[in-house]
């Protein structure tokens, strides 16, 4: 960034911990994620792979298959929405890849982790649309790992608290999963939650100030 250029250095909107927008249109995130490739873990037996669902929007999922110990083995299916306030993080970051790998290994579930588009480059409802596309893809059950090993009578969604609304809108707004949608359970992932400290009031004040403001709508949502 050329800090000598006024348009490059002038910040016109700033959401602490998430991103800031410069006058020239550049968006800079405070927290940048790394990339962890899919893997086959010889210790836990968990395998993972990436599948592109919507090529034109680069909507992708990372599948995690736990260790198979018997013939015709079926596992519960977990669909996971990563956190980050719709603006940071990735299903492919070391943080979330490690977390989902551990979940698959320790609970014996097939996990589908969604890589959706982020705001403000792709405003809401882009993340909803991407998640909806993945859920429809999952419901088809045609992917080889899902077809062979997923138990569609035991389907779970996991989201962090900030994304609870996203998951409910995505899944239950006119959705029809025929035989297995009634078995679905929506839950909140507790690995990222509102701080349970004396700073909680300040955190909630921050949420109200930024996420309930007109500027929030301008940078996060379409229309």
What is the mean predicted local confidence, pLDDT?
80
So how many helices?
Answer: 7
Quickly name the level 1 CATH class of the largest domain: Alpha Beta
CATH architecture of the largest domain: 3-Layer(aba) Sandwich
Number of strands: 9
CATH superfamily of the largest domain: Alpha/Beta hydrolase fold, catalytic domain
**Class by alpha and beta content:** alpha/beta
Uncertain stretches of 5 or more adjacent residues? 174-184, 188-198
Described by strand count, sense and barrel closure, the largest sheet is:
6 strands, mixed
Q: Domains counted in the coordinates: how many?
A: 3
* H/E element sequence: HEEEEEEHEHHEHEHH
What is the CATH topology classification name of the largest domain?
Answer: Rossmann fold
**What gap, in angstroms, lies between the N and C termini?**
30 Å
User: Spatial order of the strands in the main sheet?
Assistant: 4-5-7-6-8-9
**Helix fraction bin:** 25-40%
| Proportion of residues in extended strands | 15-25%
List keywords for this structure.
alpha/beta; 7 helices; 3 domains; 6-stranded mixed sheet; Rossmann fold
Blueprint (SSEs and pairs):
Blueprint: H1 6-9, E1 11-15, E2 19-22, E3 27-29, E4 47-54, E5 59-65, E6 75-81, H2 94-107, E7 110-115, H3 126-140, H4 144-149, E8 150-159, H5 164-172, E9 185-188, H6 200-211, H7 214-220
Parallel strand pairs: 6-7, 6-8, 8-9
Antiparallel strand pairs: 1-2, 2-3, 4-5, 5-7
Helix pairs in contact: 3-5
């Amino acid at each position: 960034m050329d800090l000598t250029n006024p348009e490059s250095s002038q910040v016109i909107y700033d959401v602490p911990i998430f991103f800031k927008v410069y006058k020239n249109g550049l968006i800079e995130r405070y927290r940048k994620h790394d990339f962890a490739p899919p893997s086959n873990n010889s210790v836990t037996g968990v395998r993972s792979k990436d599948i592109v669902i919507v090529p034109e929007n680069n909507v992708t999922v990372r599948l995690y298959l736990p260790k198979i110990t018997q013939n015709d083995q079926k596992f519960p299916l977990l669909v996971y929405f990563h956190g980050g306030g719709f603006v940071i993080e990735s299903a492919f970051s070391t943080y979330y890849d490690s977390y989902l790998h551990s979940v698959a290994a320790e609970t014996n579930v097939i996990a589908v982790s969604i890589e959706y588009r982020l705001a403000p480059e792709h405003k809401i409802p882009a993340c909803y649309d991407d998640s909806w596309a993945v859920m429809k893809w999952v419901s088809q059950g045609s992917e080889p790992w899902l077809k062979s090993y997923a138990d569609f009578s035991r389907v779970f969604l996991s989201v962090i608290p900030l994304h609870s609304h996203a998951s409910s809108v995505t899944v239950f707004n006119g959705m029809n999963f025929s035989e297995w949608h009634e078995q679905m359970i929506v839950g909140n992932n507790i690995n990222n939650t509102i701080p349970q400290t004396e700073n909680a009031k300040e955190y909630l004040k921050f949420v109200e100030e930024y996420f309930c403001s007109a500027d929030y709508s301008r940078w996060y949502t379409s229309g």
